[in-house]
Amino acid sequence: MQKNTGLIFAADLENGRRAINITNEISDLIDAVKVNYPIILSNGLQIVEELSRTKTVIADLKIADVPHINRKICRNVFEAGASAVICHGFTGKNSIEACIETANQMYGDVYVVAEMSHPDAERFIHHASKEIINIASQLGADGLIAPANDPKRLQKVRKQSKNMRILSPGVGVQGGGAKTAIQAGADQIIVGRSIYDHREPRQAAEKIVQDIGYTNP
Ligand code: 3DU
Description:
- The chain has ten helices and eight strands.
- By secondary structure, the chain is of the alpha/beta class.
- It has a single domain (7-212), classed as Aldolase class I (TIM Barrel, Alpha-Beta Barrel).
- It has an eight-stranded parallel barrel with strand order 1-2-3-4-5-6-7-8, surrounded by seven helices.
- Helix 1 (16-25) links the parallel strand 1 and strand 2 (32-35).
- Ligand 3DU binds at residues 10, 12, 36, 60, 116-117, 145, 147, 169-170, 172-174, 190-194.
């Protein structure tokens, strides 16, 4: 996935038509659109194909199964038009590797969840993040997911991950700021509700892109 504005739109809407309309409306302001279970379960995989006509699609299914199932999940979403998948890292080497191998066969990218942005994340995943980052790096993952709303942890992930790409959710409703996250080491920012719940989604996206520091060449 190419980095341009630095903004990724999380289209967590059950209404597929609305997701497509907003994506079209802000298409020049975003690097990709991220789809998750809500939109896929409500609209089917067809929505991946439809969105991929406008924009690079990241399938955020937080894939976390045994390797042969991970392969099938990846194959299905890549065949539907996704350019990247997000998988969990806590499942360990073989499960992540299954995603990366499938992605390589299908010219897709894999981003691995290193840490999460909700308060309970401290309880489990944060203890494992250093090892997850090492495995993701050794396997050649395209990048990591780490929280924008916890700049200290984000800085730590940045340090540990050296120059791996970091995509950061947690901006806006979850309390994080785009500028702070970029300064802490994020490469691209993932935003959902602050865009799709805004009265003027384009205006909201413009403001975030400004905060990221993107200037139109
Ligand atoms: O809070 P928002 O509405 O901007 O949505 C954030 C998106 O990022 C959403 O799709 C969610 O699944 C994803 N995400 C997190 O919020 C936190 C994580 O740790 C990982 C992914």
